[in-house]
Amino acid sequence: xxxxxxxxxxxxxxxxxxxxxxxxxxxxxxxxxxxxxxxxxxxxxxxxxxxxxxxxxxxxxxxxxxxxxxxxxxxxxxxxxxxxxxxxxxxxxxxxxxxxxxxxxxxxxxxxxxxxxxxxxxxxxxxxxxxxxxxxxxxxxxxxxxxxxxxxxxxxxxxxxxxxxxxxxxxxxxxxxxxxxxxxxxxxxxxxxxxxxxxxxxxxxxxxxxxxxxxxxxxxxxxx
Amino acid sequence: xxxxxxxxxxxxxxxxxxxxxxxxxxxxxxxxxxxxxxxxxxxxxxxxxxxxxxxxxxxxxxxxxxxxxxxxxxxxxxxxxxxxxxxxxxxxxxxxxxxxxxxxxxxxxxxxxxxxxxxxxxxxxxxxxxxxxxxxxxxxxxxxxxxxxxxxxxxxxxxxxxxxxxxxxxxxxxxxxxxxxxxxxxxxxxxxxxxxxxxxxxxxxxxxxxxxxxxxxxxxxxxx
Amino acid sequence: xxxxxxxxxxxxxxxxxxxxxxxxxxxxxxxxxxxxxxxxxxxxxxxxxxxxxxxxxxxxxxxxxxxxxxxxxxxxxxxxxxxxxxxxxxxxxxxxxxxxxxxxxxxxxxxxxxxxxxxxxxxxxxxxxxxxxxxxxxxxxxxxxxxxxxxxxxxxxxxxxxxxxxxxxxxxxxxxxxxxxxxxxxxxxxxxxxxxxxxxxxxxxxxxxxxxxxxxxxxxx
Amino acid sequence: xxxxxxxxxxxxxxxxxxxxxxxxxxxxxxxxxxxxxxxxxxxxxxxxxxxxxxxxxxxxxxxxxxxxxxxxxxxxxxxxxxxxxxxxxxxxxxxxxxxxxxxxxxxxxxxxxxxxxxxxxxxxxxxxxxxxxxxxxxxxxxxxxxxxxxxxxxxxxxxxxxxxxxxxxxxxxxxxxxxxxxxxxxxxxxxxxxxxxxxxxxxxxxxxxxxxxxxxxxxxx
Lengths: 224, 224, 221, 221
Hints:
The complex is a heterotetramer, with two copies of chain A (about 220 residues) and two copies of chain C (about 220 residues). Chain A is built from five helices and twelve strands. Chain A is α/β, with parallel strands linked by helices and about 220 residues long. Chain A has a ten-stranded mixed beta sheet with strand order 4-3-2-1-5-8-9-10-11-12. By secondary structure, chain C is of the alpha/beta class. Chain C has one domain (about 5-215): 3-Layer(aba) Sandwich (Glutaconate Coenzyme A-transferase). Chain C is about 20% helix and about 30% strand. Chain C has five helices and twelve strands. In chain C, the strands form two sheets. In chain C, strands 1, 2, 3, 4, 5, 9, 10, 11 and 12 form a nine-stranded mixed beta sheet that branches. A three-stranded antiparallel beta sheet of chain C has the order 6-8-7. Classes of the chains: A alpha/beta (about 220), C alpha/beta (about 220). Chains C, D: Keywords: Membrane, Transferase, Transmembrane, Transmembrane helix. Chains C, D: InterPro entries: 3-oxoacid_CoA-transf_A (IPR012792), CoA_trans_fam_I (IPR004165), NagB/RpiA_transferase-like (IPR037171). Chains C, D: GO terms for molecular function: 3-oxoadipate CoA-transferase activity; succinyl-CoA:3-oxo-acid CoA-transferase activity. Chains C, D: This is 3-oxoacid CoA-transferase subunit A/3-oxoadipate CoA-transferase alpha subunit.
């Protein structure tokens, strides 16, 4: 997956964020969202290993070994940051105090449910905080490439991978499309510049309706 | 109840404490225990409203309105004291991190179970932290006058008052007697100077065996 | 994001029938300025109050009783206010009594997305009546459901402008737990400082829990 | 009361078959000096390790695997160490996987006298297998029992001589929870200061939880 595609997805996700909201970023593409917020939008990052007020990646000489995000990558501390124990951090998450979680996905099903933690045939040995974020965050955005590296579809009628939760995500954002999850089904609300409803129909394995919105929280120009 | 009786009971209780242990003191006679520790014995006081390291009653001009014990009385802060939320404080208590709780009693039954929170015929409107301390503290000592103000017996076969927990206390200390609770029954282990096994038998409504110990954690002289 | 407002503006969030959590252990750590404003708030009727105590007669939360604002009280120790006992006997208020630790844990559970939990506290006593019991490792436990509030009125020492809170001594008590468990959280503070002035390690309530800040007017109990 | 001792003295408390909780999120906040000493401890055999991860290959807790000290691992994310995956496939270690929040809450529950609790996390997924489910307010919850340790190895920044602990930044993570949940708690710290030097408001682990203090020897992962 080219980095420019990841950035494009991150920008499309960022256009859905509101100034001041509390956001938890998953590993991978979601991590890029913080660097691509629209002008005038500032969010507060919570990381489930016990911090509110995560700042940008530090320069090499400013790395603090005691300061990492949930991806175990070095981060910095913004003024007003605070630290707390894991039980308190997940209390925040399960207790619906995080406004938006942005998570990567292996697959998504036609109900908007996400599979992002386990691959069939491999031993199940890692889950981390994904399940907690899915049941707890007020809104969940899946940020993913439209197709897998092998060209297979990631948005499918039924996932081949185990689900991460029975709760659907609220929004699915790819480099081609943005789907809202409504009434148990997918609604295509935005088509990326250079893509088309036809391409999306051909490359999406789950049924969806189309109800394009002129702008997804920000002018179309701003999200490219 | 005369203050000198309360002090005598407090001293008899204090003789059972060990240097360095974590102690929670109930309201009334138990509060006096801190001021009557034997030489060389220093305990650390936890108060369930959220403090470890409670110091003595301050002088009037040193009273801090933000610093009280569970009896809502002014206290002071010892070096090394810490503060925590109520949920954390009771986590400590229920999780068996408090070595000894010293509680007052309305009545005690022949199994050593305590009634100290509710009076029959009156509405049940207060319980506080007594039940939590009874299930959580590693050791519970009941500190009480041997008889009620009206002369009635407080240590009885079956309490007329509702029990505070189904867990028995470990030790019952009055101005006359000290009973250990063993194998579901009471064992008289100490008779106060000036009292007698006969007086105790006449004034105790529950059966007990007698197995006097020469000293209850401290020389007899030290506990008077 | 947090807004700094007057007591009256903050208390306008209270609606009739609301469940209002109020911090404090007795009067210590109680948001006395907010309580005084609650008494003046139009919406403050038919309330369920979650608080360890209901103040003392005519003091703190005790002021709500003669004003007939309380339909139900949930707490651990109401006997420190004889007016609660009298109002209860007259059938004017409903009371739900919980052991103090179960009260605190229920509030924490309400804020932490815990569906219910089991505690030994109260098993085998009158307070077990009507509660589900379960034997775990040979011991009796009671099932307890979480408590949540529509509004929480809490008291802290310092806030920064983001709404991070630091507490002072035993005035902390139920305040940080309640900050997590209500839809709208209003914090009364002694001082509002610039962002960055509180030590990140001593912020006991991170700002994401707090909606409104009110400067304490030093209302006496 | 707390004792200040060497890593070897502290780790002599570990017995074969023990459940050992180990703090840290990956290597951050992990007690690396104590982990190195654990590898040398006679009693460290047939262990159940409770930790978010099992380190990385040959680093941190990852060192225990080739030394065949671990019978079972309870945590949330073992895939960061491929040797765990391989040892599991060879049948050499048993693994219990919990969502990270459920892991943290189970440890807290173990320390706080909670008999069990219900969480939505994991309901309807493969991790719900074998767990009791209960519908609360129309939502599916799973019953989770607490975790307790025989020994906890934790990492803090500063301790005072009583054993009060203060943490630094995200190195806090599981450490304060684990400090409450084990019979014997051994804390590795950067510095031991005089009583009174830590702010009472920033002591995240009061000393009653701590048994032994060990000065960090700056062991690298």
